Amino acid sequence: MDDTVLVQGAGDIVTVVLNRPEKLNALTKPMWQRLGDIFEELSAREDVRCIVIRGAGTKAFAPGNDISEFANERSNVEQARAYGAIMKRTIEAIAACRHPVVAQIHGICVGGGLEIAGLADIRICGESSRFGVPIKNLGLVMAYSEIASLILLAGEAVALEILLEGRVFLAKEAYEKGLVTRVVPDDQVEKEARETAQRIAEGAPLVARWHKKFARRLRDPKPLSPAEYDEGFACFGTEDFQIGYKAFLAKQKPDFKGK
Predict the structure, then answer these.
(1) Residue range 135-168, pLDDT digits in tens
(2) b/e 156-177 (16+ beta carbons within 10 angstroms → b)
(3) Could you tell me which CATH number the domain at 2-200 has?
(4) Where along the chain do its domains lie?
(5) pTM across the whole model
(6) H or E element: which one contains 147?
(7) ∠140-131-26 over CA atoms, to 5°?
């Protein structure tokens, strides 16, 4: 099953591909497991500067979990609990990834597909992309770990609207709801995602990681400790700061080292 989630690229930009195009990249239990493994591995790497996640082909990012798997893998509470533990771990691995993540969304992005795409820092889709979480029609709920990211992305009122109605809607509405950050013509999605990743990768990688860390920390209303506050100035002690400001003064493109 390793080929159902691919890792492509050996440089500073890595692409993770949900690879079941014959099933519109519908997610399976092994895919959730592998996706979590991949993000934990990529997050630990120092050479990675940006991760692009996408579905294979241009028909779908992912339509959610493969319903045909339910009879054997999620047919009762015990099985569902085990399956949910895998999903929770993967959701947490993507959310905790140190590196910027760009979701390249073609076509259908529904259910579990939306959960995964919604964990990305930047989400780019085509004009004809479709979104939603119609699991009410299956008699299913989003578990706490899954619904938390949707609420964080769109707010409680919008998350409940999506879940209670179960509608599938177009990119324009997804943008208005905050589910995506950019909508482009369908034939420009890959180009836009690649250029976005390249702009990120050209920046100082330590700064990108700090910005993600700070943004996550500020979700917690607990006051910052003196050490946490002081970390906001640690960048001035990095080699990349020296490279960056000197390159700016010299009107040159900086070549950041991640140090």
Answers:
(1) 999 999 999 989 998 999 999 999 999 999 999 9
(2) eebbeebbeeeebbebeebbeb
(3) 3.90.226.10
(4) 2-200, 204-249
(5) 0.93
(6) helix 144-154
(7) 65
Element (H, E) at 209: helix 205-217
Q: What is the pLDDT of residues 19-34, one digit of tens each?
A: 999 999 999 999 999 9
DSSP secondary structure letter of residue 219: T
Of residues 101, 108, 107, the one with CA closest to residue 43? 101
Tokens at residue 57, please?
């082909």
Residue 11 or residue 181, greater confidence: 181
What is the pLDDT, as a whole number, of residue 23? 94
The confidence score (pLDDT) of residue 254 equals 87
Q: Quick one: which of 109, 128, 118 has its CA closest to 60?
A: 109
Query: Which residues in 18-55 are b (16+ Cβ under 10 Å) and which e?
Result: bbbeeebbbbbbebbbbbbebbbebbeeeebbbbbbbb
Containing H/E element for 27?
none
